[in-house]
Amino acid sequence: MPLVKDIVRDENKGEAFVEVESDTYHITMSDLLKSSIAVGDELDGEKLGFLGFADSKLSGIKKAFVFLSYGDMSERKLRTKLEKSFEPDVVSAVVELMIAKRYIDDEALSIRMAEAYQRSKLYGKAKIRSELFMKGFSAENISNALSELDESVYEESILTLLEKKCDDKAVLADFNAKKKLSAYLFRLGFSYDEIVNAMERFERE
After folding, report:
1. Rounded distance, CA 52 to CA 183, Å?
2. What pLDDT is attached to residue 22?
């Protein structure tokens, strides 16, 4: 059976290099401790398989940090990116670690993104729901994020958009112009009632 020739530990990085015959495995210190492998040990197939998995997992962890360095992302989006380079069991292990260490937190992130879409992008609820879905959030996270939003902001957002689009309130008296504006607002995710109420208020004020 293959023999462990050397183990080099990097305590600062929490990593270790395990030299087995002509192969070297780069793994986390956590996995090294879990394996109980020591210099001079003879490794059976199970131990070698673990080292191979641990080596791939550390590569996956490093790749995940590269992805996250560009910005926060959902669990599903990170998983999809990792699946292009790693086996499913490795991907699951890396994602579970990222969740446990709070490097990804779908609940908190979905709320932050929903608030940004509402306050900065001036999106309506349907558009926010669609954007969050495209980012990879679960239906539960999306529903929870939307419930955290201030419903009164939607009408204020429509008023702001109308002010930007209409130089003169009289434009709303034109059926085609009003229809075009309504379609524009609907594409931004606002409901029919929200649009009608906001337009009526816009004309009054």
Report:
1. 56
2. 85
